[in-house]
């Protein structure tokens, strides 16, 4: 009997038989005639005669080689899986239908300041910021058998008391009867990422502000001319009024003249005031986002650049209806983009015959966006130029810095839009898009 048992197991089996302990199942190797081995499982019991003396053994066995190998392979697979999961820096957690954690890797447990074993049995939303718990429930509630995936960004309370940001991608599991079983999710900490993005946005806003100030510097010559004209008129009318007031008797006719001149002085003063207010508004730091009509922003940009266009553009066309849906954006920044495009269009037509110097601003609805295009009759933009035109420090101007269009791209993309150059058309055209406001 014992000859078929593998030598490594014979002593253990003989001891079990001697102790009449073979009624318990045990697994052992058995030897085949060709020298190979099989795994076998045995269940047996001792036999006793009528006087209660041990008379023999009875056992039933079966070959379980395939089962043992499969169990070993499964154990190895689970070990590899656990090794991979435990070594990942991503946070991995699994919970049941009630939100009770059934598994968590070491990275997730560290965020809760405990071990993976200690975290099991606790609520998966235990560390979520109180103001974000409802949002988490809402996102988890929309999953279905057909679409079991969900993504969300949450604030969580660290063991230290600090607030962190985490991004999660989860999947719901269902049984064959479509009963919800629970969630498994993978997440990672995005606190530093969001802080970096905020710092970059702040830097972009500072760069945009500096660019607007630089634009104002370029406009000084034209602006001084605009202000000098009404100032000269005010001086002339004031001098004429002073001469009349020096007369001993002021006639009715002179009184009418004085009233007219005072009115003109007030008009010219208001003109100067409007110019200064417009420039101060354009030069200030960015404001908050608001709903506004793109036509209003285009009109304001044209007024700000009016002096530059006076000799550079012979005809201006604007096709921006006030009936278009509103956009939600930082209006000053969008006006900055338009001012930059208008200035570029004006400068692009320096070599164009005066009669052909035409510029147009068009806006229309395309899908869920407002698309704005600034077109000029300059030499146009080649495909090669169009590829690099929005890169920093790339310019075709001898005195240009190459940051205007780069900042414009940054502004538009930060608002969820896109900007591009239309190339190889024989004329210059740049268009940008902005999402339509949700409140429209």
Characterization of this structure:
- The structure is a single chain.
- By secondary structure, the chain is an alpha+beta fold.
- The chain folds into four domains: 65 residues, PAS domain (Beta-Lactamase), CATH 3.30.450.20; 102 residues, 2-Layer Sandwich (Beta-Lactamase), CATH 3.30.450; 91 residues, Orthogonal Bundle (Helix Hairpins); 143 residues, Histidine kinase-like ATPase, C-terminal domain (Heat Shock Protein 90, 2-Layer Sandwich), CATH 3.30.565.10.
- 44% of the residues lie in helices and 25% in strands.
- It is built from twelve helices and 15 strands.
- The strands form four sheets. A five-stranded antiparallel beta sheet has the order 5-4-8-7-6, sandwiched between helices. Strands 10-12-13-15-14 form a five-stranded mixed beta sheet. Strands 1-2-3 form a three-stranded antiparallel beta sheet, with helices on both faces.
- Helix 6 packs across helix 12 and helix 10 packs antiparallel against helix 12.
- It is elongated.
- The model has no long low-confidence stretch (mean pLDDT 78).
Q: Which H/E pattern describes the elements? A: HEEEHEEHHHEEEHHEHHEEHEEHHEE
CATH superfamily of the largest domain: Histidine kinase-like ATPase, C-terminal domain
User: What name does the CATH topology of the largest domain carry?
Assistant: Heat Shock Protein 90
Q: Helical region count?
A: 12
* Helix percentage range: 40-55%
Strand content: 25-35%
Strand arrangement, largest sheet?
A: 5-4-8-7-6
